[in-house]
Amino acid sequence: MPTRFYHILIFILCFFTQSLTAQQTGKAPEKVKGKVVRIIDGDTFELLVKKETYKIRLSAIDAPEKGQDYYQQSRQALADLVFGKIVTVELLNKDRYQRWVGDVYNSNNAYINGWLIADGNAWHYVKYSKSAPLAASEANARRQKLGLWAQAKPIAPWLYRKESRETSNDKGKTGKKKVSKGKTA
């Protein structure tokens, strides 16, 4: 199946899934529309709405962390899609860092979160998302070795963060840095 057709199909399925979720909860998420003024990393940016700035964390995805392989490429992929552009964000909730977690759409109503997964620039964050279309999109990117999947052993960001915490905890206890191997996703 051609990749472009597959992307379109995934986005339609994601939109349909999100519509059903909104109907089941009884209320649609609040939407804001504004200009992306800063890219923080591959899954977080700042959105200017009128004179208010929102820090947005894209839902259902996890991108490589600073210092991790493919970080710069992932960050650049998000920048290429949204920086300086007007986007609509469905605000779902706030995370523990007080960032808005949301679904992001460009002016053509393309689902940016899904696009990043489909092009291999982020993982489907299955801890927080059970979306079958996003899982299928990641599986397709893996098969085609797109983006970060072209690496020999990409390490999921959540494992990278866990290993970094453990290494810094071990270093604090012994004064020496522990060397450990991360698992791949």
Brief summary:
This protein is α+β, with helices and mostly antiparallel strands and 185 residues long.
Describe the structure.
The chain has helices at 3-25, 71-82, 112-118, 132-144, 157-174; strands at residues 30-41, 44-49, 52-58, 61-62, 86-94, 100-105, 123-124. It has 185 residues and is α+β, with helices and mostly antiparallel strands. The strands form two sheets. Strands 1-2-3-6-5 form a five-stranded mixed β-barrel. A two-stranded antiparallel ribbon has the order 4-7. A hairpin with a 5-residue loop joins strand 5 (86-94) and strand 6. Helix 1 runs antiparallel to helix 4 (132-144).
Rg over CA atoms, rounded to whole Å, is 17 Å
Proportion of residues in helical segments: 25-40%
Tell me, what's the shape?
A: globular
Total helical elements: 5
Key features?
single chain, 185 residues, alpha+beta, five-stranded mixed barrel, two-stranded antiparallel sheet, 7 strands, disordered C terminus
Write the layout of secondary structure elements.
Elements: H1 3-25, E1 30-41, E2 44-49, E3 52-58, E4 61-62, H2 71-82, E5 86-94, E6 100-105, H3 112-118, E7 123-124, H4 132-144, H5 157-174
Parallel strand pairs: 3-6
Antiparallel strand pairs: 1-2, 1-5, 2-3, 4-7, 5-6
